[in-house]
Structures are given as structure tokens and as C-alpha cells.
Amino acid sequence: MKARSALVYTVLRLLAFLVPFGILMLFPIFRELYWLAAIFAALIGLSLSLLFLRRPLTEVTNGLAQRRADAKATTSDEDVEDAAATAIAEEKRSSDPS
């Protein structure tokens, strides 16, 4: 995963919330009910991100999946456990006097 793609996606998601929140705070009613402006801005931001941020989301998730597949392919839990069991068995054999 590229750190740049995750950073771009995060910044765009924050902007999708902060811009509508700033615009809503310009209205007098939302100055008094800031929590309502935050709820509306969150809903607007979610909608905008679903509509326009599909490609950055796909890049981030593909990068995460690739990194996970690479980590799983290199070492698995079973391999590590088998190596540890073998090492313990060899140590016991070498320490036994008989």
C-alpha cells in the first residue's frame, strides 16, 4: 500500500466533512445547533465520499489486501509453530544424556 494513496483518501474524506460543515455554520440556525450541523455535514460527507471517492478507496483497499497477502505468503503461523516445535525437540534431544 502506498502511504500517499491512504493520505490522499484521508484528506479527501476530511474535506468532504469540513467543507459542508463550514458552509452550514454560516447559517444562523446552525450556529446555535452546531451538533445538528455536524450531523448534516457527516451525512453530506458520507454521500460525497460514496459518490466521488470510489477510486481512492479502491486503491487503498487493494494496497491493504496486497500487503496482507504478501505477509501471509512469506510466513504463516503454522510454519512458525512447526519451527518452534522442532527447535524445542532438538534442544531436548541434545540435553538428554542418554
Structural write-up:
The chain has one domain. The model has no long low-confidence stretch (mean pLDDT 87). It contains five helices and no strands. α1 packs across α3 and α1 packs antiparallel against α4 (54-74). The protein is 88% helix and 0% strand. It has 98 residues and is mainly α. It is elongated and about 85 Å long.
Quickly describe the structure:
By secondary structure, the chain is mainly α. It contains 5 helices and no strands.
Sum up the structure in keywords.
single chain, 98 residues, mainly alpha, 5 helices, 88% helix, elongated
Task: Please render the helix and strand layout as text.
Elements: H1 3-24, H2 28-32, H3 34-52, H4 54-74, H5 77-95
Secondary structural class: mainly alpha
Instruction: Specify the overall morphology.
Output: elongated
What is the helix content?
over 70%
Instruction: Give the averaged pLDDT, no decimals.
Output: 87
Number of strands: 0
